[in-house]
Design a protein that fits this description.
Helix content: 10-25%
CATH topology of the largest domain: Pseudouridine synthase
Number of strands: 17
CATH class of the largest domain: Alpha Beta
Strand content: 25-35%
Number of domains: 3
Order of helices and strands: EHEEHEEEHEEEHEEHEEHHEHEEE
Largest sheet: 9 strands, mixed
Structural class: alpha+beta
Length: 307
């Protein structure tokens, strides 16, 4: 269970939290950190307060690998209102303009969605956490300041229309990291000529963790277990996934004692029958996960992030 100290328990693993609506990602993180009495915790990419769904939290040693989940592809279920644009791209903003949705049907909407498949350019919205000269854009936006932003390339891997009941529709989006779903909805509305904004958003997947295949845990569930367990956090700890679960789509490489030793010294090593490229999970001779490596051009395994 880890040792307890004044700064919290040395507990380690990944928790798949189902973030509730109306709570910031940091508020959710701090709630979980207190429930676990954890010494160290971090999240893997913010969700808007409006949004619900998967917020992977890394406790203890797992925080060293949070960047790999930050870089992972994401999945969302998005409810969009056509015919209305807002200052924030979602229902929390002020209405900027309204337009008729007459003539829009399923075929027109599907054709518009198809236009956004693959690599696309997105302009980060003013209501985002992107920094401009050291300040978050959303802080500038709240003061009525708009600044020039640089478009970014993101990849829309899939868009599936789930429902269309004008003036609203619902879609599933599978996208690369850094995609602004509110901007995607606005751009779809612009392509249809009527404008749009997000009225409901749920993150349904991050990397290998997908709703329906993996259990997401709610704050009430965690609080009930913490209360029932009292001073024994065993039931909570049992919910944590191992560090390498976030990296399950990468090949595993088992090292000899010598190779593990030299890797821990920061040296690249040659491992027989290792993959020829990409990132790999590293295990010592006892099958214990020790970190992440990268295959170099000469075939050697270079340590990238070690426990």
């Amino acid at each position: 269970m880890g040792r307890r100290g004044r700064q919290g328990r040395n507990v380690s693993g990944i928790l798949l939290l189902d973030k509730p609506e109306g709570m910031t990602s940091n508020e959710a993180l701090q709630r979980v950190k207190r429930l676990y009495q954890a010494a160290k915790a971090g999240h893997t990419g913010s969700l808007d307060p409006l949004a619900t769904g998967l917020l992977p939290l890394c406790l203890g040693g797992a925080t060293k690998f949070s960047a790999f989940l930050l870089d992972a592809d994401k999945r969302y279920r998005v409810r969009v209102r056509l015919g209305v644009t807002t200052t924030t791209g979602d229902a929390e903003g002020e209405v900027l303009a309204t337009a008729s949705t007459e003539g829009i049907d399923g075929s027109a909407l599907r054709a518009a969605l198809d236009r956004f498949l693959g690599p696309i350019e997105q302009l980060p919205p003013m209501y985002s956490a992107v920094k401009h000269q050291g300040q978050r854009l959303y802080k500038l936006a709240r003061r009525g300041i708009e600044v020039e932003r640089t478009p970014r390339t993101v990849d829309i891997l899939a868009i599936d229309l789930r429902e269309l009941v004008l003036p609203e529709f619902e879609m599933d989006v599978h996208c690369s990291k850094g995609t602004y779903v509110r901007t995607l909805a606005e751009d779809i509305g612009a392509a249809l000529g009527c404008g749009a904004h997000v009225i409901g958003l749920r993150r349904t997947g991050v990397g290998p963790f997908v709703e329906g295949e993996t259990r997401f845990l709610t704050l009430p569930e965690l609080a009930a277990l913490a209360e029932a367990g009292g001073e024994d956090p065993g039931a909570l700890d049992a919910l944590l996934l191992p560090l390498e679960s976030a990296l399950g789509h990468w090949p595993a490489v088992r090292l000899s004692e010598d190779a593990a030793f030299y890797l821990r010294q920061g040296q690249a090593v040659l491992v027989p029958q290792a993959p020829t490229e990409g990132l790999v999970r590293l295990y010592d001779p006892s099958k214990r996960f020790i970190g992440v490596g990268e295959i170099l051009d000469d075939g050697k395994v270079q340590p990238k992030r070690l426990l």
